[in-house]
Amino acid sequence: MSHQEFRAINFGAGPGCIPDSVLLEAQKELLNFQGCGKSIMEVSHRGKEFEKVIQETKSNLIKVLSIPDDYDILFLQGGASSLFSGIPMNLCESPNDVVDFIVTGAWSKGASTDGKYFCKVNKVADMEPEKFLTVTDPSQWKFSPDSTYIHYCDNETVHGVEMPPSTPDHFPEGRIVVCDMSSNFLSKPVNVSKYDLIFAGAQKNAGISGITIVIIKKSLLTKTKPSVPSVFNFLKKSQNNSLDNTPPTFNIYITGLVLKWIIKEGGLEEMERRSIEKSSNLYKFIDGSNGFYRCGIDAKYRSRMNVVFRIQDGNEQLEEKFVKEASKHNITDIKGHRSVGGLRVSLYNAITVDQTKKLIEFMTSFMNENKQ
Amino acid sequence: MSHQEFRAINFGAGPGCIPDSVLLEAQKELLNFQGCGKSIMEVSHRGKEFEKVIQETKSNLIKVLSIPDDYDILFLQGGASSLFSGIPMNLCESPNDVVDFIVTGAWSKGASTDGKYFCKVNKVADMEPEKFLTVTDPSQWKFSPDSTYIHYCDNETVHGVEMPPSTPDHFPEGRIVVCDMSSNFLSKPVNVSKYDLIFAGAQKNAGISGITIVIIKKSLLTKTKPSVPSVFNFLKKSQNNSLDNTPPTFNIYITGLVLKWIIKEGGLEEMERRSIEKSSNLYKFIDGSNGFYRCGIDAKYRSRMNVVFRIQDGNEQLEEKFVKEASKHNITDIKGHRSVGGLRVSLYNAITVDQTKKLIEFMTSFMNENKQ
Questions:
Q1: A38 with B247: Cβ contact below 8 A
Q2: A47 touches A37 (CB < 8 A)
Q3: Is the CB of B18 less than 8 angstroms away from the CB of A7?
Q4: In sequence order, what DSSP letters do the residues of A152-210 get, joined into one string?
Q5: ipTM for the assembly
Q6: What is the CATH number of domain A28-264?
Q7: Which of A125, A246, A253, B65 is deepest in the core (most CB within 10 A)?
Q8: Where are the domains of chain A?
Q9: CB of B95 within 8 Å of any CB in chain A?
Q10: CATH 3.90.1150.10 at A267-370, yes or no
């Protein structure tokens, strides 16, 4: 049996699917990493085998994202949301510092909620009253005159909202820009120099859970006080190449394999091309379904990564049947987040254009069989 | 080629060796976890597959350690040393709270150093002036009259010092007892009820790096304030079964496989029996080598896990030759920690009695060829 036959078409929102070739490579050398007689899980984080892994992973990340020299890369633990406390702890001088949050969905809301213990929260925009279906025009955003930094989430995994690349252009000049790119990281080229701090949990497009990647402007590192806990002490992590304590070695290794796969496939330009093809095909089909399927998100802000939609404007019985029927076609993990219900299809890098076509074929036949 | 032939005899201090059978099991199902068509790395942390993994892992941990009902188990990220900040942040009401530290090596020293930002540090005993070669008699320990808790490290990985199980019996009655068991966790039965909080990084005897296990008395959870960052907010982790954010799913899975292996091999009694056999054989050989090899640690406190020794009282040239020659016998990772030099052999659960015998055979022939 080839691996393709038994593998699910996994549209999960994360931990998400991983390219077969990455898993096959990890499987092949799981007991004997590059001939060293040990698993990559068993090597010392300070030994020559892991040293090579972490350096290659860093340099490949620099390569695919064209990260300028004045930025450092940190590998942290705790998940991206742990940085909702960690970032203000590093960047704010006191809890009286004001931080601007653009609240466009569950994750930027979470950042503003956790942040309140370490800074004064100013909501530049709060889309919750609009059920996170759209984003107010940047001309309406209400920045604080003296915020320590601006925080926003580039892609809201739960609500299916993605911000345009031009977003930071609307910020007051000279402000520190912090961006949570967890769920669209490595899905497109990014102009890193528009940001001072980019962070992302790996378990969407960049590997598996248990590792958080931080890209930080080196000049920001001077802000970290020695009292910031080591788990997210940016200065300490930078000074020690993220090895001040034992990092999640296997998790970094998988990110390294994913980066090699991205390079081999054509880099972030190709990832973006595919993500546009996959998501446009799906949105186009949904919009053309005469309301059988409906995506409520403002077209300008629809996510290429997480497509949220309802059947017959929220027919839960039919949605349940949809999930069940889909599984017979090996299509899995398409339930919406428990906080919003409905359906959600995540189109991360490891999902192919063909797999998305198979989904649309299934959605077509399901519609034909179930529409009144 | 069978896996035994190419596998190194890996005496590394951590990330350490993992039983072959655990690696083979992980390898076998790496692309298709229990027939679900997905890797365990790709399943949702809230889905039925992972739900089963985390529950089994918890209940097997309860089983092997006979953990009483009034304790909870938390799976955290960040490494054990992240809790050097996290524990006082959870347990202390204010930075004026006094915490008693017994400083017996690098890790308890680290805990007292990081702790100073969150509590007043009282060193009950500080063995650094004695180069951490021994521990003063408990009758000499100077506890604070009103410490919020007592912190000690059961096994010092760098310095090779292990505390006797009777240690907490010497503490003032009613005091909260916190124990760092990172490097001897799951190497012997433990009377959990002597402790209020046990914590351990998994990468020694309990799995791979990227996961930290906390066993906490439930009554302690009321101390956690909402401002404690989620990454080590014990109350939040407990209330959410460690799933308030995406946990390191693969890392928890490996701990689960290791626990099943421990149970199959005969539980912690058998792990202890083996560790005593392995370490006594090695210490006996070292002590009988007429000073060619020498372990400077007070015999009462010698670690079963990490055997530190020198050749000819610190002949670095010969020690280097020893490491090189050992590698020709497939014996690896025996250099001492960079802060102390010399040699260190770690005898974690996955190291067999036979592998230790092979090491002693090599040490014998090396001695015979190199003694004057």
A1: no
A2: no
A3: no
A4: EESEETTTTEE--TTGGGGSPTT--EEEE-TTTTTSS---GGG-SEEEEESTTTTS-TT
A5: 0.97
A6: 3.40.640.10
A7: A253
A8: 28-264, 267-370
A9: no
A10: yes
